[in-house]
Amino acid sequence: MKKTFVIIFILAVAVYADAPWIPNVRVSVDEPWDTLNQGESCFGVYGDTIVSICNTAERGQVPVAPYAFSFDAGQTFVQIPFTDNTTGIGWHTDPVIAFDDSGHVHMIMQFSVNMLKHYLSRDGGQTWEDTSTVSNTYGIDKPWMVVKDNEIYITWQQTSGTTGIRFAKSTDYGATWNLTNIWSRTGITALCIDEYDVLHLALVYWGGGDVYYKQSTDYGENWSAETPLGDFEYDPHYGDRAPINTITARNNVVFVAWVDQGAGTWDISAVRSTDGGSTWSSEFVVNDIVSGSQCKVWALFDVFGGLHVTYYHTPDWPSNPSSIFSFRYQYSPDAGVTFNPGIRVSDTSVVSMDDFIGEYHITQADSEYLYAQWADGRNGDYNDLYFSKALLSDLAIIEHEGNDPVANRILEAPSMWHSTVVLRVQAHDYPVEINAYDVSGRMVKHIFSGMVRQPMKIQIDNNDLPSGVIFLQLSSPVTNESCKVVNIR
User: Fold this and answer.
1) What pLDDT is stored for residue 200 in this prediction?
2) Do the domains 411-487 and 17-395 match in fold?
3) How far apart are CA 301 and CA 424, in angstroms?
């Protein structure tokens, strides 16, 4: 009896993701999703609302994109088939979706290689309106979009006519677009915007096996000269077919990662800059498991400066229809200098039901959680989309000076705020910055930046901040601290 009990116990444990990731939630469960291989995916988070869109391997046969939304923070999802029959084009691909600061949902979709369209939803993605055409020039490929405040920025490669990288910007919720050519190279772009409103752009030039970088400090009006970041080798195999890159920036650190098989198998290569993109480190490998294959990397800084990286892993090389894939995660407490050992986000490790699991699966974060979405073949018929999340406080290792993290905290704040609030800041040998964020991860107040040579007090009128949960973050070159407070107005 004991032996039987132990075996059952081990099998039960094996079907759960590694802590602190919650049990996986299937995103799309209704027809027609059950007969489609869901691939590259994107999603956005705004409070308890999550909106999700993905591609399918059958995109040339079924002109429907699996779209879903959740109003309960990812506990359950509702599916609404998305299609646009007005284009006259039978299939679409490369979907990207995001929220603006007003809570509106923006989505872009590429139709064949002929057209790039934008869609706006003002009700959490239940209905779409104010559709516009971003570009209808033949040769569009691999668009990406970021939304900051209420402005939209898009990059893509133009593969015919005037080839190169195109940039589109809208300041009126996508009603009109300003298009410019910003780079003569073609390649797969990765785009992000940091807290200082600097746009960071990385490009994988597949034809030459090189990775490049540009930035814009004036909202895309002008761009820096290109900077070479590294090189790579890549051959498509089962499950992956393009060396998609990813870029993220926070606290003047810029992190770029991509897939490279220079060491013989797919690995996650990366470089980092600590001066806002002026100079760069040499290439290094992120994944702690160096056997087998790693692909489809995504990197993200949270608002507190923690660096999160997700990717697929299989013990096989080259990958094949029998390869077992899992979706894994690694955390860096020091902006990419070191990484904690990888853990599994997916409940299980399974084969892919198609030779292509999409080219990207992203992560998102607010002030409380890190969110992940990916596809796998655990149901034994088609690749299906899954979701999980984990508390940032459980994922992160906050670095403090000294042995006692409580006694050596630099920032002290009351947990309940009303009327005038007093923050206490201890002396510190490095410049510090203190900001306040709401639960969605948006900065709602800059409180202080500079040297603290002796203990000081900072008074705040709680009416200057929104009511509800607020997250305070103190950062310096050697430490990051965060605390959660409740503002009562």
Assistant:
1) 98
2) no
3) 27
Q: Can you give the pLDDT at residue 3?
A: 33
pTM attached to this predicted model? 0.88
Contact 385, 374 (CB under 8 A): yes
Q: Which option is the CATH number for 17-395: 2.40.50.730, 3.20.20.60, 2.120.10.10, 1.20.1050.10?
A: 2.120.10.10
| pLDDT, position 7 | 31
Supply 473's token pair: 């973050």
User: Which pair of structure tokens corresponds to residue 419?
Assistant: 């009327």
pLDDT of the residue at 401: 34
Residue ranges per structural domain of the chain = 17-395, 411-487
Record: fold of 411-487: Immunoglobulin-like (2.60.40)
CB atoms within 10 A of CB 19: 10
pLDDT at 113: 94
Cis-peptide into 431, omega within 30 deg = no
Query: CA 381 to CA 270: how far, in whole Å?
Result: 35
Buried b (16+ CB within 10 A) or exposed e, 72-108: ebbeebebeebebeebebebbbbbbbbbbeeebbbbb
Contacts of 201 (CB under 8 A, 6+ apart): 155, 165, 189, 190, 191, 213, 214, 215, 216, 223, 247
| pLDDT at residue 15 in the model | 58
Query: Among candidates 353, 355, 349, which has minimal Cα distance to 312?
Result: 349
CB atoms within 10 A of CB 207: 9
The angle formed by the CA atoms of residues 117, 66 and 112, to the nearest 5 degrees, is 40
Q: For the chain of 489 residues, list the mean pLDDT of each consecutive stretch of 10.
A: 31 64 91 85 95 91 88 93 87 94 94 95 88 96 94 97 97 96 96 96 92 98 97 95 94 96 96 98 96 96 94 97 97 93 95 94 96 96 96 70 53 87 92 90 91 93 90 86 86
Closest CA to 344 of 91, 8, 24, 4: 24
Query: Torsion angle of alpha carbons 217, 220, 225, 229, nearest 10°?
Result: 80
